């Protein structure tokens, strides 16, 4: 699933291309928006809120989308061939005189009043990539359930928005935290600060790297490295599912560098 940094970069590209332009044609291929026509409205701005995308339009409307696992927005020039996927995976087309934005496999796509955006993002905690990030609020949110595992607490977007499985896994490794370590036994401010640092570095550099080595196969410490030796100590990286049965995520850890207890 794309994480906060990926969504932020996507919003930046969309905003640079579409903001200030009038929509000359729109095409929505989801039942709830099948008869919606936004042509004639101007794109005011495209902003990220955690992992959510908010396209604010003239007339007080916001087109809200979320990538979840497979969604994406692609930008094309007039006449350029669309290469984002099969035609039957297209969910939205937003066309201006100079750009066409095509949304593929968007599992979440709805239209809300701009002054009612809280109906779709109001549940989110402080956004780690926001310039006005409310650190104290995020810390308090995570610490409010001391018996919860740090992995689940960091992934809960109601606590703080933007962290996904990649950053949660790598932060736990870098801080020597076993994935099932309870919040009460964790330096929560340190975990949040490191998460924000990694996300901001990714936005700045355009690639997700936690090791400091931007080369294929060397960018992560433990994420998706099950069965391979730990880069620090050589111990075999382990993997397991973590979380509630309906919301389980695969986690990775080094049993030596991240001891239990």
Automatic annotation (TrEMBL):
The keyword Disulfide bond does not apply. The keyword Acyltransferase does not apply. Its EC number is 4.2.99.18. It is an enzyme of class 4 (lyase). Its cofactor is Zn(2+). It comes from the Bacteria. Residues 221-259 form the FPG-type domain. Keywords: DNA damage, DNA repair, DNA-binding, Endonuclease, Glycosidase, Hydrolase, Lyase, Metal-binding, Multifunctional enzyme, Nuclease, Zinc, Zinc-finger. Residues 2-75 form the Formamidopyrimidine-DNA glycosylase catalytic domain. CDD domains: AcNei2_N. It catalyses: 2'-deoxyribonucleotide-(2'-deoxyribose 5'-phosphate)-2'-deoxyribonucleotide-DNA = a 3'-end 2'-deoxyribonucleotide-(2,3-dehydro-2,3-deoxyribose 5'-phosphate)-DNA + a 5'-end 5'-phospho-2'-deoxyribonucleoside-DNA + H(+). GO terms for molecular function: class I DNA-(apurinic or apyrimidinic site) endonuclease activity; hydrolase activity, acting on glycosyl bonds. Gene3D superfamilies: 1.10.8.50, MutM-like, N-terminal. InterPro entries: DNA_glyclase_Znf_dom_DNA_BS, FPG_cat, FPG_N, H2TH_FPG, Nei2_N, Ribosomal_uS13-like_H2TH, Znf_DNA_glyclase/AP_lyase, Znf_FPG/IleRS. Belongs to the FPG family. This is DNA-(apurinic or apyrimidinic site) lyase.
């Amino acid at each position: 699933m794309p994480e906060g940094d990926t969504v932020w970069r996507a919003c930046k590209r969309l905003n640079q291309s579409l903001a200030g332009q009038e929509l000359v044609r729109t095409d929505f291929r989801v039942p709830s928006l099948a008869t919606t026509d936004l042509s004639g409205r101007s794109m005011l701005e495209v902003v990220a809120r955690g992992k959510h995308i908010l396209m604010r339009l003239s007339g007080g409307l916001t087109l809200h989308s979320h990538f979840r696992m497979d969604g994406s927005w692609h930008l094309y020039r007039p006449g350029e061939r669309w290469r984002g996927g099969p035609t039957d995976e297209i969910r939205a087309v937003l066309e201006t005189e100079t750009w066409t934005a095509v949304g593929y496999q968007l599992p979440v796509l709805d239209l809300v009043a701009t002054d009612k955006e809280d109906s779709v993002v109001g549940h989110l905690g402080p956004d780690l990539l926001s310039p006005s990030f409310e650190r104290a609020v995020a810390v308090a949110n995570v610490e409010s359930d001391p018996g919860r595992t740090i992995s689940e607490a960091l992934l809960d977007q109601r606590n703080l928005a933007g962290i996904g499985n990649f950053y949660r896994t790598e932060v736990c490794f870098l801080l020597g935290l076993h994935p099932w370590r309870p919040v009460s036994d964790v330096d929560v401010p340190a975990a949040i600060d490191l998460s924000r640092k990694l996300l901001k570095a990714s936005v700045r550099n355009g690639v997700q790297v936690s090791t400091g080595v931007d080369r294929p196969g060397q960018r992560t410490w433990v994420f998706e490295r099950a069965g391979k030796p730990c880069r620090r100590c050589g111990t075999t990286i382990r993997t397991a599912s973590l979380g509630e049965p309906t919301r389980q995520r695969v986690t990775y850890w080094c049993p030596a560098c991240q001891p239990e207890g």
